[in-house]
Amino acid sequence: MPKRVDHRERRALIADALMRVAAEQGLEAVSLRHVAAAAEVSTGMVQHYFRTRDEMMVFALAVVRERNEARVRKAVEPLGATPAPRALLRAMLAELLPLDEDRRADGRVALAFLAYTAVRPAVAAALHDETAALLAFVAGQIAAGSPFVADGRVDPERAAVGLLAVMEGLGIYVLGGHYPPETALAALDAQLDLIFGPEPPPGAVSRDGSGRRRPARR
Fold first, then answer.
1. What is the rounded CA–CA span in Å between residue 21 and residue 30?
2. 207 φ, ψ to 5°?
3. How many CA atoms lie within 13 A of 136 on its CB side?
4. 3-state SS, one letter per residue, for the chain
5. Which one, of 193, 83, 80, 187, lies nearest residue 141 by Cα?
6. CB of 39 closer than 8 Å to CB of 12
7. What is the mean pLDDT of residues 188-199?
8. What is the C-alpha separation between 109 and 121, in angstroms, rounded?
9. Which of 26, 168, 191, 201 is the most buried (most CB within 10 A)?
């Protein structure tokens, strides 16, 4: 009986090799031949799953996204089934910052791939739906949790664009060694303060999901 082949597993193996090559040697070293050598498979096998370099790049970006999603799920799990919007966004965005070695490795590769897509519109198009979905999610959390939306001081869509831009920019500066993790987290908290208002001191007041203040539970 012929051995069954797990095609997704093989594609993931090749994408992981691609990311190792990019992280260790730079994106310019990524080629079908180099990736095949890193994965310890034939060039023909790589070409069987990815006809072009662009196809490899899109799949590897999807692998990075899946890793990030798994980290975010783990980070927000302690918040319970219905976390407050600010707490949810803080946990999610902090987890996406490259604050430890695993996240730095993925962050370096993701940054290189995004630079690659900047000059390849066809490749970048594969990311547009994901970006739009993330933006809509963040805007929805801001609309639900910011007390400044009702009076027009905060526009959820614009605030979401700014918040994600801050997160991405902080990530770049942390990767470059310009900021330590604590500086990045403090800047993220400051941006959240502008959107949701300052966090109340412990034991004073807390916010429910709508952003209204209420006495803290004892």
1. 6
2. -115, 140
3. 6
4. CCCCCCHHHHHHHHHHHHHHHHHHHCHHHCCHHHHHHHHCCCHHHHHHHCCCHHHHHHHHHHHHHHHHHHHHHHHHHHHCCCCCHHHHHHHHHHHHCCCCHHHHHHHHHHHHHHHHHHCCHHHHHHHHHHHHHHHHHHHHHHHHHCCCCCCCCCCHHHHHHHHHHHHHHHHHHHHCCCCCHHHHHHHHHHHHHHHHCCCCCCCCEEECCCCCEEECCC
5. 83
6. no
7. 95
8. 19
9. 191
CA–CA separation, 62 and 68 (whole Å): 10
Are 86 and 142 a contacting pair, CB within 8 Å? Answer: no
Residues in the chain: 218
* Cα 18 to Cα 105: distance, rounded to the nearest angstrom: 13
Report the pLDDT averaged over residues 154-172.
96
Number of neighbouring beta carbons within 10 Å of residue 23: 16
38 has a pLDDT exceeding 60: yes
Percent of the chain predicted with pLDDT > 90? 45
The partner residues of 47 in beta bridges, in order of sequence, read none
Tell me the C-alpha distance between 30 and 24, whole Å: 10
Interval 104-123: pLDDT, tens? 888 887 787 777 788 888 77
State the residue for tokens 């996204």: 65
Task: Indicate the average pLDDT of the chain.
Answer: 84
In the prediction, which pLDDT does 213 show?
45
- The percentage of the chain sitting over the pLDDT mark of 70, rounded to a whole number, equals 88
- Most confident residue range from 4-13, 64-73, 166-175: 166-175
